[in-house]
Amino acid sequence: ILAKKLGVKLRHPLEFAEWGTVIDACNLRLTELKRITRGKKKAAQLELYANAVSDCRAFKETWRDCVMHARRSNFSSKEAETVFERVCAFMRRLATGMSLK
Questions:
Q1: CA angle, 81 then 51 then 70, to 5°
Q2: CA atoms within 13 A on the CB side of 9
């Protein structure tokens, strides 16, 4: 939804794109939008998007990559709980700050 809201264009359908490609495209689009948008409402929306993209990169690099590529398998229950809480907070921010229209 984030990439679609930002109007990200990819070579492949979004459903088949890799995380890094989508995150990089979102960052590029944010940079473009920051140059052309003005106003408090737009600035607040761009801040929401920028924070969401930053969270996505953190999820990918901190937890997803190391688990999916078998670089690490020894997560403690506390660390897993922390991941869960951060993802929940991320989803709440998106749900309250981003319309699904």
A1: 45
A2: 1
Q: What are the structure tokens assigned to 72, written together?
A: 């690490």
Q: Give the model confidence (pLDDT) of 49-89 as tens digits.
A: 999 999 998 888 877 777 776 777 777 888 888 888 989 99
Tokens 């749900």, residue? 95
62 or 21, which is more confident: 21
Residue 3 near residue 14, CB atoms below 8 Å: yes
DSSP secondary structure, the chain, as one string: -HHHHHT---SS-GGG--HHHHHHHHHHHHHHHHHH--SHHHHHHHHHHHHHHHHHHHIIIIIIHHHHTTS-----HHHHHHHHHHHHHHHHHHHHH----
To the question of pTM greater than 0.85 for the whole model, the response is: no
